[in-house]
Design a protein that fits this description.
Chain lengths: 343, 328
């Protein structure tokens, strides 16, 4: 069996398969999801290390621990679909297909990054794959993403938007305004809330009286679903249904993915406000380990194929870091570029 | 063919013609559809173009602008209406963090071709929250263009230019001019360039820089002061951002004196900026101090008629400023 699943991985690469993105073969899909989880985890950890090594300034907002929500929600998106990421969703670019070179160039603020060093490290968007360059203001991104969905609907397209945000964003007025509008017009958008229980250092109990943030959707007249955000298949299944619903013109869905960020709000936050026991309990529910067990039970993953995936990903990351390090910074003469569009 | 029509008719006509010409253009805002707008700026558009293109929105200014920004990012050309400039504050996040910066922060990867029509201005008994101008807030934000017409002709031409501009344009409309500014407006297509001031009155002795509703008052004041033998030049900025510095500086170099007049509050207003530009670039040409006649540094325009009158800039105040300047 070991050789069989090993071959399956090899086949995926040689045949340039879409790794089951289009919900084809279940085996391909599960391996594809797994590889993407690994890629996101490894890229994110690398981004943290690079920051701590002083390779780039600014800050980084790690999503380690939340990969199942990120990958599960975005994996089946089409090329023409959009993502409105927030600060913790740098990896959503990777899932959507951005070259790793660009993702690491983004961290370094290099001229080869999609925004030529304008935006901060984690705030990445890449227009060719329709990920919106985020502003740091929480929920502002969600509102603009809702506007994109509004525009897409007006154009009569069956394209959808995935909006990523955390529990903190649900407290803002802009969140309410956007979801209300999306409900009124049945916009093609999936609101993916990664509820990691902490808005920076503020616990959920001081953010909301609700037990489930998905309950908020009731106020806007569309479905809200709370799910295990560390179970990638659960998120994938819920999001594909929500995406299909949005494509069919039936409107938005709110997915509350209950999950946990392993590290601080950012790399300069030691997160001492959290209880060790809480962190440890969540680490035991590592979305990668959970999914690895599923794959092993189904004989889809072996030690060999796991190592192979890790090795290949490491190589890809090393090449991307090399590219980023070698890339030039933008020239100071670019300071005033891109303020205005020309007629 | 030109007809004698009001500013509000010119605004409505510009939108209707552009919606006819370009099916990417649509209008959204509060009470703009079924009711045709509180000042009737969108009268008849709903009947003509339907709800798809003339959309009444929930009462949420932030989301009006955010959804218009998003729609522009996929290639549409929204015209969003903010019913009163006083209520633009909930949209600050959308305008200042999103609209003005999306192009910059994506290095041109994403754009925002957005027109925001904003009804503003005092002198109509609107009280604290239906009288504010607030245009200068946005002049402080590179990435946003800010315009304000003073004539019916400019109202149509500037609005057409704003809608076709690939950048976000904030188009301020002074409510007192809606039905008092009347003039010849061509029924065909034309634009008034954004970023270009207009000299409304030629003069030798001093330059008055103004815009919007104040333009008419400055022209009146300039006529009144001819009795003192003073010949004033009146510049209507029309665009507040980007400022047409060249027209202002050229005029000041000729007259050697400058008075800046605006309705909005004084501190950090347009007048301060224009004064600084002149002081930096035409200092040697000045024969007197730059004088500002502006709204006072008082939170907003109060309701009671004597209080509102005291707040507002009027012809007498402008003439007094001109007399003071003429003495140099």
């Amino acid at each position: 069996m070991a050789s069989k699943s090993g071959r399956a991985v090899a086949e995926l690469e040689t045949e340039k398969s879409d790794n089951g993105r289009k919900n084809g073969n279940g085996r391909e899909l599960m391996l594809g999801l797994y590889k993407m989880l690994v890629k996101c985890r490894m890229c994110d950890e690398k981004a943290r290390i690079l920051f701590r090594q002083g390779k780039y300034a600014g800050n980084f907002y790690s999503g380690v621990g939340q990969e199942a929500a990120e990958v599960g929600a975005a994996y089946s998106l089409r090329e023409d679909d959009w993502i409105a990421p927030s600060h913790r969703d740098w990896t959503s670019n990777i899932i959507k297909g951005a070259p790793l070179n660009l993702c690491f160039a983004q961290l370094f603020g290099k001229a080869t990054s999609p925004d030529r060093g304008k935006s901060t490290p984690a705030h990445m968007g890449y227009p060719p794959i329709h990920t919106i360059t985020p502003a740091s203001s929480i929920a502002g991104q969600l509102a603009v993403g809702t506007g994109v969905a509004f525009g897409l609907k007006k154009l009569g397209r069956d394209t959808v938007v995935v909006s990523f945000f955390g529990d903190g964003a649900t407290s803002l007025g802009g969140f309410h305004e956007a979801l209300n509008f999306a409900g009124v017009h049945k916009l093609p958008i999936i609101y993916v809330c990664q509820n990691n229980l902490w808005a920076e250092s503020v616990p959920l109990r001081l953010q909301t009286a609700l037990k489930d943030l998905a309950d908020r959707a009731k106020a806007y007249g569309f479905p809200g679903i709370s799910l295990d955000g560390n179970d990638v298949m659960a998120v994938y299944d819920a999001s594909t249904k929500a995406i299909a619903r949005a494509r069919a013109g039936e409107g938005p869905t709110f997915l509350e993915c209950k999950t946990y960020r392993w590290y601080g709000h950012s790399e300069i936050d030691p997160a001492k406000y959290r209880m060790k026991e809480e962190v440890e309990a969540w680490k035991k529910r590592d979305p990668l380990v959970l999914f690895e067990k599923v794959l092993r039970d189904k004989k889809l993953l072996t030690d060999e194929s796991k190592d192979k995936i890790a090795k290949e990903t490491t190589q890809e990351i090393n090449e991307a870091v090399e590219f980023a390090e070698q890339s030039p910074y933008p020239d100071a003469s670019e300071l005033a570029d891109h303020i205005w569009a020309q007629e | 063919m030109a007809r004698n029509i009001t500013m509000i008719e010119a605004i409505t006509e510009a939108m209707a013609q552009e919606m006819e010409r370009d099916d990417r253009v649509f209008v959204m805002g509060e009470d703009i559809g079924l009711s045709g707008g509180v000042f009737k700026a969108t009268a008849g558009l709903y009947e003509k173009f339907g709800e798809e293109r003339v959309l009444d929105t929930p009462l949420a200014e932030g989301n009006i602008i955010a959804s218009a920004i998003g729609a522009s990012m996929v290639g549409l050309r929204p015209i969003a209406e903010i019913q009163f400039a006083d209520f633009i504050t909930p949209a600050m996040e959308s305008l200042v963090q999103q609209a003005s910066k999306i192009r910059y922060r994506s290095a041109g990867g994403y754009g925002c071709s957005l027109t925001v029509r904003i009804c503003c201005g005092g002198g109509t008994g609107g009280g604290l929250y239906h009288s504010q101008e607030n245009a200068s807030w946005f002049v402080h934000e590179p990435g946003l263009k800010v315009v304000m017409p003073s004539t019916a002709y400019d109202a149509k031409g500037l609005l057409l230019a704003a809608i076709r501009d690939p950048n976000p344009v904030l188009y301020f409309e002074h409510k007192k001019l809606y039905r008092t500014a009347k003039g010849d407006v061509p029924d065909g297509d034309y634009t008034v360039p954004i970023g270009k001031a207009e000299i409304r009155r030629q003069g030798r002795d001093m330059t008055i820089v103004t815009y919007g509703y104040m333009t008419g008052l400055c022209l009146e004041a300039a006529e009144q002061i001819t009795k003192n033998g003073v010949d004033a030049e009146v510049i209507d900025l029309r665009t507040l951002s980007p400022l047409d510095k060249d027209t202002v500086l050229e005029s000041v170099r000729k007259t050697s004196k400058c008075l800046v007049v605006h309705e909005d509050k004084r501190t950090l207003g347009i007048g301060g900026e224009i004064s600084a530009i002149i002081a930096e670039e035409a200092f040697d040409d000045l024969d007197g101090p730059i004088i500002r006649i502006t709204g006072p540094d008082i939170p907003a325009i109060p309701f009671a008629p004597p209080l509102e009158h005291a707040w507002m800039v009027n012809t007498e105040k402008i003439v007094a400023g001109m007399e003071k300047l003429a003495a140099y």
